[in-house]
Design a protein that fits this description.
The chain is mainly α. It has helices at 6-10, 29-48, 50-54, 67-78, 96-111, 122-127, 129-148, 152-159, and strands at residues 18-19, 25-26, 164-166, 172-174, 179-180.
């Protein structure tokens, strides 16, 4: 069976999702699991990738612009609601071994509080030793997961830095399926 990337999936290309009468794609459980896993692994990558984090400081040319987006991409977009990583185990979205690997990173990230409680001060966050602990834990989880995962699309989501494309009319889209739409 041929596997497809997240972008193909989100764009409705070459998979068996069907459009409902309202125009919304109905996905199978396996397609939903695939999409969730790629989003989860990509969100972990943002914590482990110092190059992406350094781009937080470039206010002019950075669609994934902050610590806030990094945290939201992981906790809000992946583990909603309540930041409960274990909620996905019964559904087979992650294995018990993956859960055990992720837990130290997840707990550190969940408890992290930026210096002076200022989530917009990226300079201070990137200089913070407690943030470095989160990054190191993310990197360890990323490396261990890379040894466990065999799906090539999942490995791409986990390891490759995103390629952001500016959208006509404003905003950005990453090759990992994330979107940033400017506030009106």
């Amino acid at each position: 069976m041929k596997r497809f990337g997240l972008i193909d999936f989100l764009l409705g290309r070459r998979h068996k999702a069907t459009k409902s009468p309202g125009g919304i794609f109905e996905r199978t459980a396996e397609q939903t699991r695939t999409m969730w896993r790629q989003r989860w692994l990509g969100a972990l990558r943002y914590f482990a990738d110092e190059n992406t984090q350094r781009r937080w400081l470039d206010r002019e040319d950075n669609p994934y612009y902050s610590y806030v987006e990094c945290m939201a991409g992981y906790f809000d977009d992946t583990f909603f609601p309540g930041n409960e990583i274990e909620r996905w185990l019964p559904y087979g979205y992650m294995t018990d071994a993956e859960y055990q690997l992720m837990l130290p990173f997840h707990r550190l990230a969940e408890r992290y509080c930026p210096p002076n409680n200022d989530a917009r001060d990226c300079d201070s966050i990137l200089a913070d030793d407690r943030w470095r602990e989160v990054v190191v834990a993310a990197r360890k989880a990323q490396e261990a997961l890379a040894q466990m995962i065999s799906d090539p699309n999942e490995l791409i989501a986990l390891k490759m830095a995103p390629d952001w494309v500016e959208l006509e009319g404003g905003g950005f889209r990453s090759d990992g399926g994330a979107f940033i739409i400017p506030a009106s």
